[in-house]
């Protein structure tokens, strides 16, 4: 809401220091010059110490300085209503606009943020992840602040804010100082939840801790008494007023109102009566005072306490079972008794928002005084009333959470509807609470499995162990819906796999496959099983699974999404096993004949990722990047900015690494790691991010930095059960080898051999463990090293990707007898020069140039390594070159784009593709291959894609 109701502004005493800080912050916010800017302020203190009054004065002063004021207030009864505070802050600024204007204001975040803010209905499809939604709220608030600057954002009773809003604001708060925004919160320190601990140590003008509000001194209470009752109030009376209120400003003000209402003279002889009057303001005294107003007024007050804040009078009347006139009379009596705020007590800038209690302390006391059974019944009536008023199932759900189970189908239906809305709006925790309550109602016998399934879907991101229990319980229910059963099994396998329990995921699918008679349904389950088996690093029957997959995929036509998933898995399996690259690309092409969504509602993103990655290993990284760019854009449109986006950034970094664009690879890998840190350490996405960043740092020659990164992130044994690429254990061994820890590296690489070889994974393009092991054992066992390297070359030739063959030949030359090295390196350079692998080409050029003492080759190595960002290789090759008396090449002008000369060379190569490849490198064509992201055989398709992108 733009601002909320407050009590009549009164003189503030003993708050000069706080108001001075407020004025300083507002001056800084609204002042001219480069020093103007935002700030953070936090005020803390127990109930009644004047936080609300202080914030009301802050808002008044902000309005006086022409600030836009966004204000919200947490509510004790609204804590379970997701985004309640966020809606108060932002919704009034955008409500009432047309859909077209709203879409323009929210931009690409419309379908992600709009439902959370109550500005539009959730769309069908996969929901945003919580992090994506928070990023969207960040964007909307930042955009709003810039557009309507300067802005004061004021949150009162933050300790009662809903978790979704509070965790978002706590994370957003540090940005305030970089925006024209004064962000102010007030809370009770003993009640602030753990997810808002950031507010306890806000930086900025409040120092390193919030400003605590102190109780009033006797002199301050005396000033309040005399302001309200007259200067003739004597010292003894004032001192007793301070004693019975303990300097609490709210209690002191209320006490003076009671004295005035009783006509009590403020003299010493009446001082003993103050204790009883003070007691009447709280607890049982307040309840007794309320009861004297009559039964209908009591019921109306109870109804208001159940409804919370911004209370619609007509809904309160319905809950209290009062007519319109009775409700109006009750409202008047409660205002006269200073239980409800008086009408028209907001400032000129504050709209009427419904009935409010004078203070949250009063609301809490009245709510807790309602007899338990009656309080439950009132929540039930409130749920029905808000639905009938058109406020929706989500508004009713918070009341239904407070009711007792009664086997009511309407309750189950309403809670399921609310949970569905909240899940699609990006509030899975709220959906989980609502579905758990629906389960206790309980649902009808034939509905229970569906509720358990929905609960499992809502708990997937937050409570994977509970999700497994819910889904297994759903399967144990007797129901006849085969589609629901399939959905439950697939979701169960998904959560098991994401919990690093891939074998269990496969077993659960296998059991269901055996009992599924429908051919298409069985194929869908088989596709899921093949996928999770492919990611299981400890799979025991991998060759048999590969044969089954081959037989199945080769007879499918790709007529629907399930068949295309199976074919994509066949392409990935062929890649891992080192089948010819033409076979791999053939199956990948069958999959991608039609658009292949990365964000399908009831499927994971894993298979589309695999379909893209096979292009990288097959020397088509340009096509892989094209697919990843489309997938990343799809993730962002869906608001998936957690694990999904981290995977996308990290794997795009790996593609750039394979292309030799190491600077870009490092930037992307660090972005992926930042996102992975949000998800959690030692999660699959974290393993990917660290492995790829370490690989890139090693290629750039920064071994010590890579080692520190590995230690910081605990990168090492035990390695994950899920397949990670690049293989985590192999990357760790490469790091050990770079540090000179040869024996440890050998042990790790031999363990990789024992793990991958039985699975039939033998493509060195996917995992070059043989090449690293050959280098590691070369000094002590040169014959073993040559055997390992020769086998890697054989496997690479069988696969057929020039970059894989070239890398294997380079290492084979490194461990070969001196007389055999030149021939191996010449072939490596020739192959790599017609591949997209710039870094591997630079390494091969450097090795050949050193072996032949050829300054031209070393110069080419330096230039290529510079283009790649391989700083360590540049330094090494430069030292050799200058040691030979060669001239250090001047850095050529950077040209990331494909030049006309390179396009002509590529086009000529396409027209003469049936002719034998030249025995010596064509360096212009080599540059074209690297920039287009393909080897020579893929130039035709790459040129066509380049032409499309250029139009």
Using only C-alpha atoms, the radius of gyration works out to 35 Å
> Ranges with pLDDT <50 over ≥5 residues?
1-9
* Overall residue-averaged pLDDT value: 90
User: What's the total helix number?
Assistant: 46
How would you sum up the major sheet?
A: 5 strands, parallel
- What fraction of the residues are assigned to beta strands by DSSP? under 5%
Task: State the secondary-structure class.
Answer: mainly alpha
Anisotropy-based shape: elongated
Strand order of the largest sheet: 2-3-4-1-5
Could you tell me the number of beta strands? 5
Q: How much helix, percentage-wise, in residues?
A: 55-70%
Euclidean distance between termini CA atoms: 48 Å
Helices and strands in order:
Blueprint (H helix, E strand, L loop, with lengths): L15 H15 L8 E6 L6 H14 L3 E6 L10 H11 L4 H8 L3 H4 L16 H18 L3 E6 L6 H10 L8 E7 L23 E2 L5 H12 L5 H11 L3 H14 L11 H6 L3 H9 L3 H13 L5 H7 L4 H13 L23 H10 L2 H17 L4 H8 L8 H16 L3 H13 L7 H12 L4 H13 L5 H17 L3 H13 L4 H17 L6 H13 L6 H17 L3 H11 L14 H12 L3 H18 L4 H17 L2 H18 L4 H16 L3 H10 L15 H11 L3 H15 L12 H9 L4 H18 L2 H14 L2 H16 L4 H15 L2 H14 L2 H13 L16 H12 L11 H10 L6 H12 L1
């Amino acid at each position: 809401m733009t601002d909320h109701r407050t009590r009549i502004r009164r003189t503030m005493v003993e708050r000069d220091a706080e108001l001075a800080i407020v004025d300083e912050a507002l001056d800084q916010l609204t002042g001219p010059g480069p020093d103007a800017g935002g700030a953070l302020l936090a005020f803390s203190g127990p109930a009644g110490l004047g936080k609300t009054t202080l914030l009301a004065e802050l808002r008044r002063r902000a309005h006086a300085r022409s600030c836009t004021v966004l204000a919200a207030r947490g509510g004790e009864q609204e804590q379970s209503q997701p985004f309640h505070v966020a809606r108060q802050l932002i919704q009034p600024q955008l409500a009432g606009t047309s859909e077209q204007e709203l879409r323009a204001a929210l931009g690409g975040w419309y379908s992600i943020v709009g439902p959370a803010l109550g500005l539009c209905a959730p769309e069908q499809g996969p929901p945003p992840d919580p992090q994506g939604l928070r990023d969207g709220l960040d964007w909307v608030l930042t955009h709003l602040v810039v557009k309507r600057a300067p802005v004061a954002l004021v949150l009162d009773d933050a300790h009662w804010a809903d978790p979704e809003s509070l965790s978002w604001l706590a994370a957003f708060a540090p940005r305030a100082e970089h925006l024209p925004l004064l962000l102010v919160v007030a809370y009770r320190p003993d009640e602030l939840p753990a997810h808002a601990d950031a507010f306890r140590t806000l930086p900025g003008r409040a120092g390193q801790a919030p400003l605590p509000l102190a109780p009033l001194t006797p002199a301050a209470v005396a000033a309040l008494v005399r302001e309200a009752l007259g200067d003739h109030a004597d010292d003894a009376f004032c001192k007793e007023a301070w004693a019975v209120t303990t300097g609490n400003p709210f209690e002191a003000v209320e006490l003076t109102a009671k004295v005035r209402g009783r006509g009590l003279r403020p003299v010493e002889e009446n001082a003993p009566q103050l204790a009883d009057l003070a007691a009447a303001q709280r607890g049982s005294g307040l309840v007794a005072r309320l009861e004297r107003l009559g039964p209908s007024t009591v019921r109306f007050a109870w109804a208001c306490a159940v409804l919370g804040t911004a209370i619609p009078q007509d809904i309160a009347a319905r809950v209290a079972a009062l007519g319109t006139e009775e409700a109006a009379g009750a409202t008047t009596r409660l205002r006269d008794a200073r239980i409800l705020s008086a009408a028209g007590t907001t400032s000129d800038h504050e709209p009427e928002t419904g009935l409010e209690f004078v203070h949250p302390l009063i609301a809490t006391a009245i709510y807790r005084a309602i007899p338990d059974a009656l309080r439950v019944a009132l929540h039930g009536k409130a749920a029905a009333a808000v639905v009938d008023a058109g406020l929706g199932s989500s508004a009713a759900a918070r009341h239904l959470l407070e009711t007792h189970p009664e086997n009511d189908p309407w309750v189950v239906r309403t809670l399921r509807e609310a949970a569905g809305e909240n899940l699609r709006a990006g509030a899975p925790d709220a959906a989980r609470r609502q579905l758990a309550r629906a389960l206790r109602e309980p649902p009808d016998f034939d509905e229970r499995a569906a509720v358990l399934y929905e609960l499992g879907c809502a708990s997937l991101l937050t409570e994977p162990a509970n999700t497994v229990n819910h889904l297994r319980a759903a399967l144990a229910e007797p129901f006849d819906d085969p589609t629901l059963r399939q959905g439950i099994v697939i979701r169960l396998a998904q959560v098991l796999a994401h919990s690093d329990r891939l074998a269990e995921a496969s077993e659960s699918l296998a059991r269901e496959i055996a009992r599924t008679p429908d051919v298409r349904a069985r194929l869908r389950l088989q596709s899921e099983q093949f996928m999770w088996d492919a990611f299981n690093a400890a799979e025991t029957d991998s060759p048999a699974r590969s044969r089954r997959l081959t037989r199945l995929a080769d007879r499918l036509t790709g007529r629907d999404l399930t068949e295309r998933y199976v074919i994509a898995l066949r392409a990935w399996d062929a890649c891992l096993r080192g089948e010819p690259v033409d076979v791999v690309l053939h199956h990948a092409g069958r999959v991608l004949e039609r658009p292949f969504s990365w964000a399908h509602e009831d499927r994971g993103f894993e298979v589309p990722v695999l379909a893209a990655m096979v292009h990288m290993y097959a020397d088509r990284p340009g096509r892989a990047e094209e697919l990843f760019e489309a997938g990343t854009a799809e993730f962002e449109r869906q608001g998936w900015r957690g694990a999904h986006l981290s995977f996308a950034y990290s794997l795009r970094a790996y593609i750039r690494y394979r292309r030799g664009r190491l600077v870009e690879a490092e930037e992307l890998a660090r972005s992926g790691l930042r996102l992975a840190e949000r998800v959690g350490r030692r999660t699959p996405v974290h393993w990917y991010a660290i492995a790829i960043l370490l690989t890139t740092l090693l290629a750039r020659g920064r071994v010590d930095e890579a080692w520190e990164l590995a230690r910081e992130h605990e990168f090492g044994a035990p390695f994950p059960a899920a397949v990670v690429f690049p293989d985590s254990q192999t990357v760790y061994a490469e790091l050990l080898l770079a540090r000179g820890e040869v024996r440890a590296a050998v042990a790790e690489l031999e363990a990789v051999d024992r793990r991958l070889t039985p699975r039939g994974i033998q493509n060195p393009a996917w995992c070059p463990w043989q090449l690293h092991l050959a280098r590691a054992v070369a000094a002590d066992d040169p014959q073993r090293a040559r055997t390992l390297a020769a086998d890697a070359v054989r496997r690479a030739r069988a696969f057929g990707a020039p970059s894989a063959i070239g890398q294997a030949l380079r290492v084979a030359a490194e461990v070969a007898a001196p007389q055999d090295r030149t021939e191996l390196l010449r072939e490596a350079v020739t192959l790599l020069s017609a591949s997209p692998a710039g870094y591997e080409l630079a390494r091969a050029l450097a090795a050949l140039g050193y072996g032949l003492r050829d300054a031209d080759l070393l110069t080419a190595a330096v230039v290529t390594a510079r283009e790649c960002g391989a700083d360590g290789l540049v330094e090494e090759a430069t030292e050799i070159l200058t040691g030979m008396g060669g001239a250090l090449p001047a850095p050529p002008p950077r040209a990331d784009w494909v030049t006309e000369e390179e396009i002509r060379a590529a086009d000529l190569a396409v027209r003469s593709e049936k002719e034998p490849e030249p025995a010596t490198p064509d360096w212009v064509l080599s540059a074209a291959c690297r920039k287009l992201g393909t080897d020579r055989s893929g130039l035709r398709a790459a040129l066509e894609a380049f032409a499309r992108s250029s139009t």
